[in-house]
Amino acid sequence: MKVSGIFLSMIFAFTLVMAAAGQGIRAENKKGVSTVKIAQENEMDQQVLVAYASKYGSTQEVAEAVAEVLRGRGLEVDLQHMPEVRSLARYDAFVLGAPLYMFRWHKDARRFLSRHRKALTKRPVAIFALGPITPGDAEEWQASCEQLDKELARRPWLTPVVVEMFGGRIDHSKMSFPYSLIMSEVPASDLRDWTAIRAWAGKLPVVLQLEAPKADGTDAG
Ligand SMILES: Cc1cc2nc3c(=O)[nH]c(=O)nc-3n(C[C@H](O)[C@H](O)[C@H](O)COP(=O)(O)O)c2cc1C
Which of 44, 72, 116, 181 is the most buried (most CB within 10 A)? Predict the structure, then answer.
């Protein structure tokens, strides 16, 4: 697997910092649960869970945008932080989003997959990740995709109907030690393409089998 230089530098810096500090990574900030149910005028029975992991908020914002698009389609959507999700029993489909950190899908996402494995094999699942942070770096984009592919390959039981990579965000003002130090040389960026994100979300009702394709063969996106 070809891994772009920026992430190799990051992991090298991470190792040095952790060795010097002699301490573990700070626990992930606990995010508040945001469970919102909006009863649509034209309410359908189908319920979708959009579950996300996020350390610095950029993936949460993408999950919120995805949920908003799905609600606009008349679906009932729960938007939840992955660690807060208790049961998947009442959902017809799932959208799972998490960022990549240190070559892995965020640990909350990995735990979520382990905890809810059984339910996730019974209903359609869409997956997205955030990763690339350097504008115009196709190699880095490829490396991020390979990191996500590796995570999915570790779980052959998980068969998502769609998998997507979105650009990520680096915002130094949100970072605390040790990431603030590790990332100090990495320029701030926000590669989230909101048009692409909303277009992807617009296709989900069809790919998640919540809405029939239109007669002309297009989806509603
Ligand atoms: C310390 C650190 C390590 C990261 N490691 C990776 C990585 O290994 N692969 C990758 O594609 N992106 C990596 N990223 C980029 C993040 O996935 C990106 O910044 C994402 O938008 C963060 O999501 P969040 O704001 O929801 O936490 C890293 C970012 C940071 C700050």
Answer: 116
Tell me the pLDDT band of 35, cut-offs 50, 70 and 90. very low
- The verdict on the CB of residue 103 being under 6 Å from ligand 1 is yes
Which atom of ligand 1 is the closest one to the Cα of 98?
Answer: 26
Helices marked H in 58-186 — which ranges? 58-72, 107-115, 117-120, 138-153, 179-182
Atom of ligand 1 nearest to the CA of 53: 26
**Quick check: is 143 in a domain?**
yes
Number of domains in the chain: 1
Is residue 79 within 8 Å of 39, Cβ to Cβ? no
Ligand 1: which residue has its CA nearest to atom 6?
101
Task: Map residue 127 onto helix, strand or coil.
Answer: strand
Report the alpha-carbon angle 213-216-217, nearest 5.
50
**Substitution site in 25, 56, 130, 182 for ligand 1 pocket (most atoms within 8 Å of beta carbon):** 130
Q: Is residue 49 part of a domain?
A: yes
The average pLDDT across 125-135 equals 98
pLDDT of residue 45: 75
- DSSP-derived pairing of the beta strands 189-190 and 169-170: antiparallel
Question: In the chain, which ranges are E strands?
Answer: 47-52, 76-81, 93-101, 104-105, 125-130, 162-166, 169-170, 189-190
